[in-house]
User: Fold this.
Amino acid sequence: MTGVLPSRTLPDEMAYLLPTTAPDVWRAAVARAAQLLAPTWDEHPGNIGALSFILLTLSVEREQSPQSIPLAVTVENLRAQGGEPEELSRRIEAAGVTAGVLGAGDGPGPLDTLWRDMSSWLEAPGEPMSDVPGHPPVLWAAVRGLHDVISPLGEAVIRQTPVPLSSLGALTILVGRYVQIVTASAIRPVKCDTCAGCEGGVLRVDGPAVTFVCAEGHTTAHHQLEVRRVRNALAYAGVPIGAAVAVEGNLPVPSSAYDERSDPRHLSRFTAGMLA
Assistant:
């Protein structure tokens, strides 16, 4: 039986935040965030992105490396935010542009999509385009929890905590036949936006981004290709994670409507029969 990778290990969460184009100051912020979260990681798995952005902001504003930001300064910044840290969001955006991780008028940045996912309001379920405010940004919820996670720690504990090492963040997956998006009622191949080709090709994973490169060399960013589900699909396919791997046949990947650990072979009787 194929083992399934844990969905939210700390090394994997670090890898999801580290595209190859990320500058060193961002890598240092992610490493420091992982070190602060390591003692309580099992209880609080979703905070590393928010804490990394906060540490990057403090690093830029104080002109210090993320590793040298005192724990007390981080705790005080978390405590001072309150329930709706709009000012923190503005500070992060300014620091992100300065550090080169967020884009400005002269072009996009390597973490624009990640920041948009963390800072945008989410529509209320079943109420698109309505006056219902929906769910607050992921950043806001994370800030409220992070203070409780970080404040009990002491500098001595952190000094004794090794800096975790990231999992492999960049993967090249050669697919022999089709990359398939699997739902409960359909299996659809990912098609190239340029030539509509879908058989053969490569999936490229780079931090939080997944792109499909068709056999003709055109690149497509498909909204249903999410990094955690792609990694999990490799595990279900029995392919070990590596910088360059190959899947001989199809690579079925669950739709983003499903849990990131979903088995793409058994989302329904229909898909189980088709993929058997």
